[in-house]
Amino acid sequence: MKKYIQNWFKRYFSNPQVLILVFLLFVGFVLIAFLGDMLLPVLVAIVIAYLLDGIVMWLEHFRIPRGASVVIVFLLFIALLAVLIVVLLPLISRQIGQFVQELPSMVAKGQMELMRLPDKYPGFISQERIRQMLMLIGSEFTQLGQHILSISMSSVKGLISVLVYLILVPFLVFFFLKDKAMIFAWIKNLLPRERGLAKVVWNEVNQQISNYIRGKIWEIIIVWGVSYLTFTFIGLRFTIILSLFVGLSVLIPYIGAAVMVLPISLIAFFQWGPSAHFLYTVIAYGIIQALDGNLLAPLLLSEVVNLHPVAIIVAVLVFGGIWGIWGLVFAIPLATLVHAVFKAWTSSLSSQMNHPEAV
């Protein structure tokens, strides 16, 4: 058994480049697992810098120096951030407050509509089943109220965190854009010389993740805008909140779209009851998700490595279980990293078998 393990280890890990790649991955995952909360502003800034760096490089094609391109893009980013804070956040907070105030009356109206269902459809729905459903909904709303209360109790801490993000993240984004070459050179000097395999993985993952982030940002904006216009046309209430969360739901493949069915259906049911408008809302949401999944996402993410739906779902479950909401959001980039590592590793093994004298 000992000899078998030694032979297996020698076969798959005899190449020093493989050991260096495994070591770098191990260090990266340990840092994220134990220091992820503290490094979260840095990770957020890296994601934003990935997005903005594409615009910087686009400006460089027009012979604009990188320094000037960085300043232009950063000022546009600050202006957009200011607009979001001044215009969008008050609208969202106002709708959230209105939703909390009207929630009891909406629940009461929904209960009345549910109690009428056994009379309309006596052969399908019984009074006992309606009572069980109302008890379940009541318990869920009780837990929601407790969660909202806990959020309000920690609002001071959350406000401080938001202020820290608003100060630190823009500074980090600016320096990531301005000193990109310097940061990469510094990281390169820290790495060992035998890093050829790690370099191959980095080049592929860097390209794939940058394309993924830019594509997802555009997908969020488009789905958000289309959902807002659609819900406004139908007359659904709380369109800003619902459309925003519909846009953000595309970050979690398959699961995000399925989860958003419930709040949209409940609000439409509380507003109109089992009517045609309720049916129109559900159908419209289904059409938006179908167009996103079959047209928009493949168009925007065509340059990202193709992953089988089963692989995506497994990645969502695994990384979501490890890192919670952030694991759900970054499930596809992490799956892309795993795919690139195995691709480079198997390629290295194949090269080693074909040219054993090179080892």
Tell me about this structure.
The chain has 359 residues and is mostly helical. The protein has 2 domains: 19-193, no CATH class; 195-359, no CATH class. It has helices at residues 2-13, 16-35, 40-60, 66-120, 127-153, 155-178, 180-190, 196-234, 239-248, 255-272, 276-300, 309-329, 331-354. α10 runs antiparallel to α11. The longest helix is centred in the first third of the chain and has 55 residues, at 66-120. The model has no long low-confidence stretch (mean pLDDT 76).
Return the domain count: 2
Distance between the termini: 25 Å
Anisotropy-based shape: globular
Question: From the helix content, strand content and strand pairing, which structural class follows?
Answer: mainly alpha
What is the H/E order? HHHHHHHHHHHHH
Q: Could you describe the largest sheet, including whether it forms a barrel?
A: none
Chain-averaged pLDDT: 76
Fraction in helix: over 70%
Low-pLDDT parts are none
Number of helices: 13
